[in-house]
Amino acid sequence: MSDNTPNSKKIEALLAKKKAHAASLNVDELSSKIFAGDFKALSETITLIESTNQQKSEIGQAVVAKCLNKNTDAIRIGITGVPGVGKSTFIESFGLYLVNKGLKVAVMAIDPSSEKSHGSILGDKTRMNKLAVHPNAFIRPTASSGSLGGVARNTRETIFLCEAAGFDIILIETVGVGQSETAVHSMTDFFLLLMLAGAGDELQGIKRGIMEMADAILITKADGENVKMANMARSEYKNALHLFPANDNEWIPKVETVSSIETRGIEKAWDIVDAFNRLTISNGSKQANRNQQEVYWMNETVKENLLKEFYQTDGIEAELTKIQSELIDGKITSYRAAEKIIKYYHERKRTI
Amino acid sequence: MSDNTPNSKKIEALLAKKKAHAASLNVDELSSKIFAGDFKALSETITLIESTNQQKSEIGQAVVAKCLNKNTDAIRIGITGVPGVGKSTFIESFGLYLVNKGLKVAVMAIDPSSEKSHGSILGDKTRMNKLAVHPNAFIRPTASSGSLGGVARNTRETIFLCEAAGFDIILIETVGVGQSETAVHSMTDFFLLLMLAGAGDELQGIKRGIMEMADAILITKADGENVKMANMARSEYKNALHLFPANDNEWIPKVETVSSIETRGIEKAWDIVDAFNRLTISNGSKQANRNQQEVYWMNETVKENLLKEFYQTDGIEAELTKIQSELIDGKITSYRAAEKIIKYYHERKRTI
Predict the structure, then answer these.
(1) Most exposed of A225, A300, B32, B317 (fewest Cβ within 10 Å)?
(2) What is the helix (H) or strand (E) element at residue A137, kind and residue range?
(3) pLDDT tens across B172-225, in order?
(4) Contact in structure between B204 and B179 (CB atoms under 8 Å)
């Protein structure tokens, strides 16, 4: 070691030191700007955590670490509903109502499909044009980074950054692809389901199990000739929710009608969220839920990483296809199949 | 190798050969007896698969392997409901109705809690005393083998054995502990939820998400003064289910009232199951669902086994407790926490 090119070693060490220093400067600068509510620093850091460049992403991570739990008063709201229910229109109206109350509002979306469609990336800001230009609103288009796990991770870290930047309300829209509702439900305090009146067919779009996650259902487009039907839908859903099992947090899900166009029902929507927030703070379930969510995401990530290691092992895929067809043909039980594939995995790992 | 005690080696090899021969005889004998519908051989094999003795369990496994997909006409029915709803009484009435129709009925239960309480082990047969003695009925008390994964595996293998033994109807009761409803739902064709009328408070016992799994809801104890309330509950649930998203298999969940004491509604319950069975056979969803279930259990078992290896690694638990408290204190993100613990795992594995 000592005998080869001591000079170049020295230079390398110096450069590395300089780089680390620059990165730490970056981290300190970005985080203090974020604490001061600087939108540009916020955007820049989100871009860093979303980056596939490891060095950049490490800097982003370091900023996130400084931003953890800086503002636990913020309310994280998940919003879902089938395409056409009027999610963007509602978020525009609701967001404007909140910023006009003096609250700072951040909006983001979870859309693992956007890599292909690019639909909502272009759409979000243009469909919320009044909110987008308001100085107290921050709209972050969906990152187009593949898997739900990756998108969920970026979104959760963005939540921490926004809270550190002083945002009071974090709105997270989900387009309902794959498991994205479950992901959003597991990272928010309050989960809002938007539905159309006189549905029937429209209901097909809502996946099973989503209704029971909702802390409130809002019947949208309750304007003009729709009002009567919306009111009917409201009492139907109210009766239906009434039959559901109670929540651990003592909250009884609410059903209301809204018209984003006529901006009716928007205040009521806020009253519901506010009441929920007060209740869950006073009975301790808001913090308890957040702690549970942290542990949930840790365990999910452990599981995801272990499974990724497994499924990405060379040869596993071909072996799995083979075993799966034995399984479907009834030649083997699913337990034997699992044992076989895991045995194969360990043998591969030993030889690689 | 060749120089040490060639004689004892020979004897050992002979003994092993003899043992393997005996085991294979056992397997052939047990499986042909099961195909002939022998209850004793069926019970014996279930005891083998439940055994913690590896040699015995291997023999059981070999019998199961011979029994796979021997009778795909059988209908697997999951039954759930809160304690006190009258599950045993319903199964007694429903089972008797079916055996009197000439059908062969097997009854089993999933109760991961039974290791502690031993409640349902003693209870099942005595609470179904008429069904228990009928020559076309086979009631297998819950195995008291710890984890849900283990119980689920034994139950699924018992289903294969019962079907090979010619049973037409497999009833699987769940007591609703932990994730047992999900487990039962994932191993049956038809999922039945029993509910009480005039509930409100009783509903608290039904976990969230269960209602949307139901292919039918039966309001129990619809006799005497309860009839009116049961009918009201019936139309309430009917309206509520109507608001749910549709099933992929085109089935619309049904709601009916039953009285096990007055044996009213029992035939209607069968008509519902029968209609479901015909529909799902004709549109192919019965087999498709079973195939999906096989793949599901394989993947679940892979996941379970990988996680078991992880969590049972020496030192992981202590490390996890440490990291988890950093997480809750907001010192670290859940992703970093997961990365840290997995890094620790790989280091441990390298040194062990």
Answers:
(1) A225
(2) strand A137-140
(3) 998 766 678 889 999 999 999 998 886 554 454 566 678 888 999 999 999 988
(4) no
CA distance A154 to A161: 10
For residue A281, what pLDDT is reported? 96
- Residue pair A110/A151 in contact (Cβ under 8 Å)? The answer is yes
CA B180 to chain centre: 8
Separate counts of helices (H) and strands (E) for chain A: 14, 7
A155: Cβ–Cβ under 8 A, 6 or more apart, which residues? A108, A110, A143, A172, A187
Both tokens assigned to B145:
């083998």
**What is chain B's length?**
352
DSSP letter at B53 equals S
pLDDT tens by residue, B8-44: 888 888 878 777 777 777 999 999 999 999 999 999 9
Residues B239, A239: C-beta atoms closer than 8 Å: yes
What is d(CA A192, CA A254) in angstroms, rounded to the nearest whole number?
A: 10
ipTM metric: 0.78
Phi, psi of B105 (to 5 degrees): -120, 125
A329, closest residue in chain B (CA to CA): B69
Identify the band that residue A322 occupies on the pLDDT scale cut at 50, 70 and 90. Answer: very high
CA distance B240 to B248: 18
Q: Are B154 and B142 in contact (CB under 8 A)?
A: no
CB atoms closer than 10 angstroms to residue A73? 9
Read off the tokens for A265: 């029902």
* H-type alpha helices, chain B: 6-35, 39-50, 54-67, 87-100, 114-117, 119-127, 129-132, 148-164, 180-185, 226-242, 266-282, 285-311, 316-328, 334-351
Q: Distance between CA B275 and CA B108 in Å, rounded? A: 23
Which residue, among B222, B207, B279, has the nearest Cα to B249 in the 3D structure? Answer: B279
What DSSP line would sit under B306-325, residue for residue? HHHHHHTSTTHHHHHHHHHH
In the sheet with A105-110, reading across from the earlier edge strand, the strands are A137-140, A105-110, A169-174, A75-80, A190-196, A216-220, A254-257
Cβ atoms within 10 Å of B147's Cβ, excluding its own:
13
Task: Say if B16 is an interface residue toward chain A (CB within 8 Å).
Answer: no
Q: Across the interface, which of A153, A247, A298 has its CB nearest the CB of B327?
A: A298
Suggest the residue from A64, A72, A302, A329 to mutate for an interface test with chain B (most B CBs closer than 10 A).
Answer: A302
Res. A39: pLDDT tops 60: yes
What chain B holds in terms of domains, given with CATH numbers, is: 6-67 (1.20.5), 75-283 (3.40.50.300), 313-351 (no CATH)
Q: Which of A84, A297, A92 is nearest to A187 (CA)?
A: A297
Contact B335 A69 (CB under 8 A): no
> Which has the closest alpha carbon to A195: A118, A253, A252, A271?
A253
What are B290's two structure tokens? 């079973």
Report yes or no: B81 and B220 within 8 Å, Cβ to Cβ: yes
Chain A hits for B333, Cβ within 8 Å = 61, 64-65, 68, 156-157, 160
Burial class (CB in 10 A: 0-12, 13-18, 19+), B312: exposed
Tokens of A294: 């942290």
Residues 194 through 233 of chain B touching chain A, CB cutoff 8 Å: 203-212
Copy the structure tokens of residue A162: 């926004």
- Report the residue from A212, A296, A342 with minimal CB separation from B212: A212
